[in-house]
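Field log, afternoon session.

UNIT: design team B
ACTIVITY: writing a sequence onto a fixed backbone
BACKBONE:
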């Protein structure tokens, strides 16, 4: 699966680079990196003796921005992103951590205010994700998995805002809302509506 998603990401970006450029449009490439705060939806209130907590992780990857004018652009991204969940007992008897790493490919429509130096922008669009690996820990010890806990793919919506800092730098804050129930099972039970939910902050460089 990991090899397949890598090949898919390379093929997508190679195809985008080969697309004809509309008159007056400008294509730019870049890299970005930052941090995640993952807290899935659908688990709150299901266990009276434990609480769902936020799990931090890394996100980073490459992007292609197609400027369609002074205010509008379309941006494709291929990101490695760490999601998952942390479940803590009320009496601290156990802490379960679910690690879930994905390749995520958002397609974003961005609208910016064309100021001379610092340009605020907002963006939104769909995203698809492909699971690379998953791991479950309880009190710091690996829990052997006899079957997959999470589905191999995911999809959702991305909403966010940020700043272009001069011609070569940017920063953004976004929320990725999963729209698919991603869990097969969690500690032997099937949650009714477990979906990924991730806040991300990142900085990027245009080339």
């Amino acid at each position: 699966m990991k090899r397949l998603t890598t090949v898919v990401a390379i093929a997508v970006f190679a195809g985008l680079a080969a697309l004809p450029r509309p008159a007056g449009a400008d294509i730019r490439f870049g890299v970005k990196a930052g941090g995640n705060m993952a807290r899935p939806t659908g688990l709150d209130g299901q266990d009276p003796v434990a609480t769902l907590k936020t799990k931090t992780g890394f996100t980073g990857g490459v992007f292609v921005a197609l400027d369609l004018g002074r205010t509008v652009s379309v941006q494709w991204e291929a990101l490695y992103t760490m999601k998952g969940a942390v479940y803590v007992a009320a009496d601290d008897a156990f802490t379960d951590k679910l690690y879930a790493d994905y390749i995520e490919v958002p397609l974003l429509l961005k609208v910016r205010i064309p100021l001379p130096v610092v340009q605020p922008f907002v963006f939104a669009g769909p995203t698809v994700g492909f699971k690379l690996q998953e791991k479950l820990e309880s009190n710091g010890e690996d829990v052997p998995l006899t079957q997959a806990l999470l589905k191999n793919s995911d999809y959702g919506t991305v909403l966010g805002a940020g700043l272009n800092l001069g011609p070569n730098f940017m920063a953004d804050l976004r929320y990725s809302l999963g729209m698919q129930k991603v869990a097969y099972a969690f500690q032997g039970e099937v949650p009714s509506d477990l979906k990924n939910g991730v806040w991300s902050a990142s900085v990027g460089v245009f080339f």
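LOG NOTE: The chain has a mean pLDDT of 84.
NEXT ACTIVITY: expression trials, pending approval
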